[in-house]
Amino acid sequence: MSEKFGNWRTLGNPGPDIKSTRNRALAELDITIPVGRCWWAMTLAPLDVACPQCGSHDVLYSCKPECCFNHVCNNCYTTFELETARIGEAEGEFESPPEPDPTAPTAPCARCGEWRVFAIRDGDNSPSQFVCIDCRALLALSLTNVAPG
Questions:
Q1: I need a labelling partner for 73 at 20 to 30 A (CA). Which of 11, 31, 81, 109 fits?
Q2: What is the pTM of this model?
Q3: DSSP 8-state secondary structure symbol assigned to residue 41
Q4: Which domain holds residue 11?
Q5: How does pLDDT run across 64-110, given as a tens digit for each residue?
Q6: 8-11 and 2-5: which strand pairing?
């Protein structure tokens, strides 16, 4: 017997607990669903930043986290820095991704200052939220100190 719960179809009697129903739907359908401002199961990806001047994604991190977060576009040589703002707390589950390439774009976490910030992927859409995997802060990313090359 099949019962319908919102737009999700679960098998058998879902019972009175909505959380267990949602968990069963996730387990049976192997999907993710939104919960508040984050995802139940998040897919993380390294930061991918476009140059604010030419739009190229060939951007290199040119310093060390102890100094600054200066980035350089390898196409037009525009320099800029990345910064974050805390917008919430990540409540979903995620596995810690491998350490990123030291020349890949990175940004400091607005809460703890660490540089282990990753994009939260939502299918084919570009990310609009980011997460620090050290303190689980949900972050927004912005560019500052843009100097055209």
A1: 109
A2: 0.67
A3: B
A4: 2-31
A5: 888 889 999 999 999 999 999 999 998 877 777 887 788 999 999 99
A6: antiparallel
Claim to verify: residue 103 and residue 138 sit in the same structural domain: yes
d(CA 141, CA 106): 10
- Confidence category of residue 19, pLDDT binned at 50, 70, 90: very low
24 lies in the same domain as 96: no
Contacts 24+ apart (CB under 8 A), 3-11: 8/33
Of 28, 57, 26, 21, the C-alpha closest to 42 is 26
Using DSSP's 3-state secondary structure scheme, residue 118 falls into strand
What's the rounded Cα separation, in Å, for the pair 130 and 120?
5
Total count of domains within the chain = 2
Is residue 117 within 8 Å of residue 39, measured between CB atoms? no
Count of CB atoms situated within 10 Å of the CB of 83? 15
